[in-house]
Design a protein that fits this description.
Residues 689-757 form the DUF5110 domain. The protein has 799 residues and is α+β, with helices and mostly antiparallel strands. A hairpin with a 4-residue loop joins strand 2 and strand 3 (37-44). It is globular and about 90 Å long.
Length: 799
């Protein structure tokens, strides 16, 4: 036998010495004598892309994650050659690339070392599949912490963890279980009060090791593709998250009703059951805006069909639900039943739109309808076809939103729960196997769904929700954290997952309130509602296999708690809408873990439970049974207890007493919080005043209120109202300044201003330098006043 030694296992391979470099525009190319090329691209002064190839040339540069509508540019770029390294300098950072082996390090302009390669880039040839297993290792600094990576069911700080990214249908997953439904290969590092980010844009199965295998080394690797990552410099975590979110894109504004409360179950049917549920919400005066139909609304689980035994006239039902304020949301899965009499299947077959195995036959797998074929959503022609399928659901029947499930993609009765890895995909003109396309399959389905719903919902705004997602999916869809469990541990997990998703660019996320699998106690459900109303997406959902999970499935006390907290969410809708506006405009996450809020306070680095809702409300859920209070950390500054208006000085851990119908909620001193009256659904009431809760602070604080028509696209033409509010507190004076932008005229005419924490008795009130008599503004001493909304400055003077 003759052995070809060139095919023997080579182990890890490394770049050799640099033999040449070229500077072309925003990119610098470094060539080694073993054909490795490093391409360094400066997108912004604080955003640098590092892309390696081992074959002497680069393949087509294509990414589903990057928002191609974003414009990038830098202020300064200088490339210099030193004896042992090259240096690339921007106005924010310096990057040094070693001539000997391409190892690189990044410094700030004061020569502080932010990030440094350990082994740096290396690779291993994959003889089984072809291509390379690409690897990167970097030194971890003393005390360095790591955050991000999407909805991982583990501690907020990832130090000491190893995680895996491979979109997986993980029913009833547990704490620390890997992998889960979503793939967000982006993390934030923090050390010495300096934050940076790494986005490893590789859609193959990827792994991240945060000092688990080796104590002072962080590494990440992929089972194929390129070593292609982006470095994002802070130094504030806020800057890192905003830059990453800009890079991968932001959603458009949802209709306001989407931010209300939603009710779902597997499954509500027949029509009489759906109406029984919706009627009960109205009877009990628990606000609710959306009712969901799971797979049983379909004819034999065939997508885009209706079971006429359960729903004989879906258009009439949807219209009647709408009259009562309920928007109907339906599920659509990717599996298309193999049935020659099924119109969707016939179209897909005739047009050759389904995924194929490597040797030609269609990919076949079992899901709810039985044996199915699956559209190749990486084909733009297929996405266009799929979008067109929504015409009847949206235009004709009146469905308001679509829920994509099982799109990891999930396949039943196979060991790996998904497609075989030899399935082929078009990948927008970059043909590949499922090894590369798996992690983006769900996102491309959601993308096609979004374009269909948007097309047929116009002139209203679309609503799409997905279970599986890859970085950038937030441009098209909201998400939830998958098939969780009705346990206290999962309440803890849900709290962390939604915070983590928020700083991972996917802010519009929630969990199945109460747990999808198993049955919660009334206490657990109540505690979950109390947390869930502070998540951007708020929906109760359950499997239905273990009993009912509507608020009235429990006792009267739980019904009252649900009503209280859901009503609070509806009061806070203008605050929540403003949070969303800041998310889409500036990339600011809607939920902020304490470490994001104050990274310089090391006490925040390992906090899991507390988070900032928006910019000025601090929330800490109750996460264990029989609690009469809990210890929690109050971040630095001054904070008012929302329930008692007691003022607390932060920067310390304290005990907070709580009742069963409360959780610790605090408001930042100086904040001005907008509130609507309680409505049973968005748009139910016409009201003539907006409430502004003003929390006194000796000092200055900025707040904002964004409003528009609550749906449609006029806001993109300037028809919105953005109020910039400033509170200036002095020893015996409170000044409220207001500046309005935008052409939208709000329907109310007055502000009801609630005064909270005022330390003096009011003797005089001036509006725009004119003294006002108390009875003309309904002034109740140190409590509230009612003023016309057309003012610029309000002075409240004390004795």
């Amino acid at each position: 036998m003759i052995t070809n030694t060139s095919l023997e296992y080579k182990g890890d391979l490394y770049p050799s010495k640099v033999v040449s470099y070229e500077h072309e525009g925003d990119s610098v190319f470094f060539n080694t004598d073993n054909k490795v090329i490093l391409k360094v691209t400066i997108l912004r002064d604080s955003l640098i892309r590092f892309r390696f190839t081992t074959k002497g040339y680069f393949s087509n540069d294509f990414s589903y994650a990057i928002d191609k509508t974003q414009l990038h540019g830098y202020n300064f770029l200088e490339v210099t050659e030193e004896e042992t390294y090259f240096q690339i300098r921007t106005s924010k950072v310096k990057c040094k690339i070693q001539k000997a082996d391409l190892r690189l390090s990044v410094y700030d302009l004061n020569d502080f070392l932010i990030l440094e390669d350990e082994l740096g880039f290396h690779w291993e040839e994959s003889y089984e599949y072809g291509g390379n297993i690409v690897k990167m290792s970097k030194y971890s600094k003393d005390g360095e912490c790591y955050y991000g990576l999407g909805d991982k069911a583990t501690q907020m700080n990832l130090k000491g963890k190893r995680v895996e990214n491979f979109a997986t249908d993980q029913y009833a997953y547990q704490k620390d279980q890997e992998p889960l439904y979503k793939v967000v290969p982006f993390y934030i590092g923090l050390h010495n009060k300096q934050a940076y980010g790494i986005f490893f844009d590789n859609t193959f199965r990827t792994f991240f090791d945060f000092c688990q295998e080796r104590r002072n080394v962080t590494s990440f690797w992929a089972e194929g593709g390129e070593m292609n990552y982006y470095f994002v410099y802070g130094p504030q975590m806020q800057d890192v998250v905003t830059t990453y979110t800009d890079l991968t894109g932001k959603p458009e504004l949802p209709p306001l009703w989407v931010l209300g409360y939603h009710q779902c179950k597997w499954s509500y049917y027949p029509e009489s059951k759906v109406k029984e549920i919706t009627s009960k919400f109205r009877e009990l005066q628990i606000p609710c805006d959306a009712i969901y139909l799971d797979i049983d609304y379909m004819d034999g689980f065939r997508c885009f069909t209706w079971n006429k035994n359960y729903f004989p006239d879906p258009k009439k039902m949807v219209a009647e639900l709408a009259e009562d304020g309920f928007k109907t949301v339906v599920i659509i899965d990717p599996g298309i039943k193999i049935d020659k009499d099924y119109w969707v299947y016939k179209e897909g077959l005739e047009k050759d739109y389904f995924c194929k195995r490597a040797d030609g036959p269609y990919m076949k797998g079992k899901v709810w309808p039985g044996e199915c074929n699956f559209p190749d959503y990486t084909n733009p022609v297929v996405r266009e076809w799929w979008a067109g399928l929504f015409k009847e659901l949206i235009s004709d029947i009146g469905v308001k939103g679509v829920w994509n499930d099982m799109n990891e993609p999930a396949v039943m009765e196979v060991p790996n729960k998904t497609f075989p890895m030899d399935v082929r995909h078009v990948y927008d003109g970059n043909p590949c196997s499922h090894r590369k396309a798996h992690n983006i399959y769900g996102t491309q389905m959601a993308r096609a769904t979004y374009h269909g719903v948007k097309r047929f919902a116009y002139p209203k705004r679309p609503f799409v929700i997905t279970r599986s997602a890859y970085s950038g999916a937030q441009r098209y869809t909201s998400s939830w954290t998958g098939d969780n469990v009705a346990t206290w541990e999962h309440l803890w997990i849900a709290n962390i997952q939604v915070q983590r998703m928020s700083i991972s660019g996917m802010g519009f996320t929630g969990s199945d309130i109460g747990g999808f699998a198993e049955q919660p106690t009334g206490e657990l459900y109540a505690r979950w509602i109390q947390l869930g109303v502070f998540h951007p997406f708020c929906r109760t959902h359950s499997s239905g296999d273990h009993g009912n999970q509507e608020p009235w499935a429990f006792d009267e006390e739980v019904i009252n708690i649900t009503r209280k907290f859901v009503s609070l969410r509806y009061q806070l809708l203008p605050y929540l809408y403003t949070m969303f506006w800041q998310y889409i405009e500036e990339g600011v996450p809607m939920l902020k873990p304490l470490v994001y809020y104050d990274q310089d306070d090391t006490q925040t680095h390992y906090r899991n439970d507390e988070f900032i809702f928006g910019n000025q409300i601090l929330v800490c859920p109750i996460l264990e049974p029989n609690a009469v209070g809990r210890r929690m950390y109050i971040p630095r500054g001054e904070w008012y207890n929302y329930w008692t208006n007691e003022l607390f000085i932060g920067g310390r851990e304290i005990w907070i007493d709580t009742k069963f119908d409360e959780i610790p909620v605090f408001v930042k001193a100086g904040a001005i919080i907008p509130k609507y009256p309680v409505q049973q659904y968005v748009g139910e009431l016409d009201f003539d005043e907006l409430t502004l809760d003003v929390y006194y602070k000796n000092g200055k604080e900025n707040s904002a209120v964004y409003e528009d028509a609550q749906d449609g696209y006029d806001y993109k033409k300037g028809r919105y109202s953005f109020l910039s509010l400033r509170s200036i507190g002095k020893e015996k004076e409170l000044i409220i300044q207001l500046h309005k932008e935008g052409k939208y005229e709000t329907p109310y005419t007055k502000y009801k201003i609630n005064l909270i924490g005022l330390p003096f008795k009011v003797s005089e009130i001036e509006i725009d330098n004119e003294k006002i008599e108390f009875d003309k503004i309904n002034f109740e001493q140190n409590k509230f006043l009612l003023v016309d909304k057309e003012f610029s400055e309000l002075h409240i003077v004390g004795e």
